[in-house]
Structures are given as structure tokens and as C-alpha cells.
From TrEMBL:
Residues 162-278 form the Fe2OG dioxygenase domain. Residues 35-55 are annotated as: Disordered. Coiled coil: none annotated. Belongs to the alkB family. One of its GO terms (cellular component) is mitochondrial matrix. This is Fe2OG dioxygenase domain-containing protein.
């Protein structure tokens, strides 16, 4: 067991030393560009500016951004089409180039000085939250103008840096992550990008059980479960209730990955989780 990211199967971890964070500057964006496209794209003066400023997503991706509030879990938002397929491949290639994963290691953590592609990804998460369409769906009592009707409260959205910690997880078929709430040393506002195999992430909340007079049954509780389908290229954002009061879990044991009554085919899955460390008390 490590961190709160309790993998259901044995994993090892390649952790880096914390390093000083310098976040969103132009130099890093350029490095990210080189990383994703190679040197040639920078010297290509005919390249459109939009493409040059964001290697992980083209304009087509941006136009599709649509946020859905997951019914029943306050603070849980899904953007299913965050990364189009070619951008997913580019992100995977950038992760692959880090050389983090091997037979013995399927998780990597980085603190502070994130790789350029992760800095770029963080900026893209912010942009997606800012400009993506919002659909509050059947969330009771919300309108699209509500403070709640935004994937991240503005104090989290505009903090600097937005994220300074990442975990990349690689799951082979059958491997998942046990139910957990992320450690309290991480601040509110967590983003998870899914790549490769689709999966169902289950959110569960312990609720006290009540009898017919609505009095709590001694020592009893019931669990509310909300399954969320995470397709490759999707982004989920957790804050508030979803981050602190709901556990999340991916159970990929045979028979457990059910969606619309059918079992999902399992392949390798890679995810990138972005978080922000809480300031340490001096
Ligand atoms: O792999 C995922 O999608 C979730 C990872 C996670 O929950 C974590 O690292 O805390
Ligand atoms: Fe987690």
C-alpha cells in the first residue's frame, strides 16, 4: 500500500525528489511544444499560432468540450471528449518517453517540477474548464449560472500553480485501484485524464442507515454507489464533496467492469492524475 492510491495488485513506484516549481512560463510551453512535435514544428513559421501554442489539442478538440455534472455526486464533473484520439496518442508518447513504466513499475509520481507535457496538460485542463460548455443535467436546483455549475470553484481554478503533483498509473487488464479518498496532504481540486482502455470508476459514499421513523440504526450504514464511465481521452474533475466525502475505485477484476449491462473489454489503461500539494505549515 502506498499513498492513498491503493492499487489492488502489487505495484512499485518511481518517485522523484520534490523540486522547486516554476509553473506556466513561456519557456516551458516551448519545451512542451518540442516534446510533443519535435524541433521541426517550432521552426515551421507557417504553422498556425493556435496549433503552436497548444501541442496536446487542436481546435477540433476545443470545440467539442462539454462538461457534465455527474448526478448524485456534488463536485464531480466529466468532460468525455477532453482529448481527441490523435492528442491522446501524443500524450501517451510523451509519457512513454519518460521511461517510467517497466514490468516492475507501473506507477510514477512527480512533485513540483512537472514535465513540460504535464504543465501543458494542466493549462489545458484550466482552459477546458474556462471555455467548455456546461451541462448541469438533472442536478437538483442548479442552473448553468450557479457558482456550483462550474467544474471547479474559482479559488481553485485560478490558484498558481493549478497543479504541482502528478501520478501516472498504468494498469494491465484485471488491475485497478481500491476504494480511497486521496490523501489530505493534497489540496482540493483533482483532475484525472484517462487513456487507452475505457473503464468504470465507482464513487461510493457511506450513508448512515435510518429506520422508518428516520432515526439512525445503531452502527449501521448503507453505501451509495455512483458508477462513472471513463472513456479514453476523458477528464474528470473532483472537488468539495466528491474529493473529500466520496471514495473512488476502479475494480477491474473479471466480471466487475459493467456498463449498460455489458462487461467492458479490458486492455491496458493509463491515467494521469493532477493534484496540488497543500502548503506545508511553517
Ligand atoms: O487511475 C485512475 O484513474 C485513478 C487514480 C487515482 O485515483 C489516484 O491516483 O489517486
Ligand atoms: Fe485517487
Amino acid at each position: 500500500m502506498q499513498d492513498t492510491t491503493v492499487r489492488c495488485d502489487a505495484v512499485t513506484m518511481a518517485a522523484a525528489e520534490p523540486a522547486a516549481a516554476s509553473y506556466d512560463d513561456e519557456l516551458r510551453r516551448r519545451e512542451a511544444l518540442r516534446e510533443a512535435f519535435g524541433d521541426s514544428s517550432e521552426s515551421d513559421s507557417d504553422a498556425p499560432r493556435e496549433a503552436a501554442s497548444s501541442p496536446l489539442v487542436g481546435r477540433a478538440g476545443r470545440e467539442r468540450w462539454r462538461w457534465v455534472a455527474v448526478p448524485g455526486v456534488r463536485g464531480l464533473w466529466l468532460c468525455a471528449d477532453f482529448l481527441p484520439s490523435d492528442d491522446q496518442l501524443r500524450l501517451l508518447a510523451a509519457i512513454q518517453r519518460e521511461g517510467w513504466f517497466s514490468d516492475a513499475s507501473n506507477q510514477a509520481m512527480r512533485f513540483g517540477d512537472l514535465p513540460p507535457w504535464a504543465v501543458e496538460l494542466s493549462a489545458l485542463v484550466r482552459e477546458c474548464i474556462c471555455i467548455g460548455d456546461v451541462d448541469v443535467g438533472i442536478s437538483p436546483g442548479w442552473t448553468n449560472e450557479d457558482e456550483d455549475a462550474c467544474p471547479l470553484p474559482s479559488d481553485l481554478l485560478w490558484r498558481e500553480p493549478l497543479f504541482d503533483q502528478l501520478i501516472a498509473n498504468r494498469y494491465t487488464p484485471g488491475e485497478g485501484i481500491c476504494a480511497h479518498v486521496d490523501l489530505m496532504r493534497f489540496d482540493d481540486g483533482i483532475a484525472i485524464v484517462s487513456l487507452e482502455s475505457a473503464c468504470v470508476m465507482n464513487f461510493s459514499r457511506e450513508c448512515a442507515a435510518y429506520d422508518t421513523q428516520n432515526t439512525q440504526k445503531h452502527g449501521e450504514s448503507e453505501s451509495t454507489n455512483v458508477p462513472v464511465y471513463l472513456n479514453p481521452g476523458s477528464l474528470v474533475v473532483l472537488s468539495g464533496d466528491a474529493r473529500y466525502h466520496w471514495k473512488h475505485e476502479i475494480n477491474r477484476k473479471p466480471g466487475a467492469q459493467l456498463w449498460n449491462g455489458r462487461e467492458l473489454e479490458q486492455h491496458r489503461r493509463t491515467s494521469v492524475t493532477l493534484r496540488k500539494l497543500k502548503a506545508s505549515p511553517n
